[in-house]
Amino acid sequence: MDGYNVIRRLPELAAVERAEGLAAGREALCAHLRAYRRARGHPVTVVFDGARGGEQSRGAGGLTIYFSRVGETADAVIARLLQGSGGGVVVVSSDAEVAALAQRAGAAAVSAEEFGTRLTAAALAALKGEEEQPPAVPAKGKGPSRRLSKAERARRARLAKL
């Protein structure tokens, strides 16, 4: 996950960053991600552009946090992490270059806004004590059915688990 990209795309997190600063925005995102991890059980890795020079930490709540090195972008760190992933990974970023990079590496890409709706749904489901329901897919009308490509079916299966 491209941390600052997500923070600046989600209004709630962007407001925290503007009002309280960069560190507060990071912590607000990490708090949401820890709650999401508890609700869904997925491993979560977030990458921030380099204030701390290449540091990696295993945060509380099972969250892995990376900071890019000085002069390196979070995108480059995400690319490096994707090389050893072997697929089955979902990358969250609204940056078109990062999304294209993820797809070339065999990972699914989700925009920050779409992931924000999933974060909200998981939080609401956790509050209600229910299982999160996948978003409703409208029924298609009559007409020829078209089967999605194998890659697109695999991508959608990964996203459904998100």
Question: How would you characterize this protein structure?
Answer:
It is a single chain. The chain has 162 residues and is mainly alpha-helical. The protein has one domain (3-135, 145-161). The chain has 7 helices and 5 strands. The protein has helices at 3-9, 11-20, 22-40, 74-83, 96-104, 112-128, 150-161, and strands at residues 44-48, 56-58, 63-67, 90-92, 108-110. Strands 1-3-2 form a 3-stranded mixed β-sheet. Helix 1 crosses helix 2 (11-20), helix 3 (22-40) crosses helix 6 and helix 4 packs parallel to helix 5.
State the domain count. 1
Q: How many strand units?
A: 5
Give the class from helix and strand content and strand pairing. Answer: mainly alpha
Q: What is the helix/strand order? A: HHHEEEHEHEHH
Strand content: 5-15%
What about the largest sheet? 3 strands, mixed
The amount of helix comes to 40-55%
Residue stretches low in confidence (pLDDT < 50, at least 5 long) are none
Radius of gyration: 17 Å
Give the overall shape.
globular
| Straight-line N-to-C gap | 13 Å
How many separate helices? 7
Describe the strand arrangement of the main beta sheet, using strand numbers: 1-3-2
Overall mean confidence score, pLDDT: 80
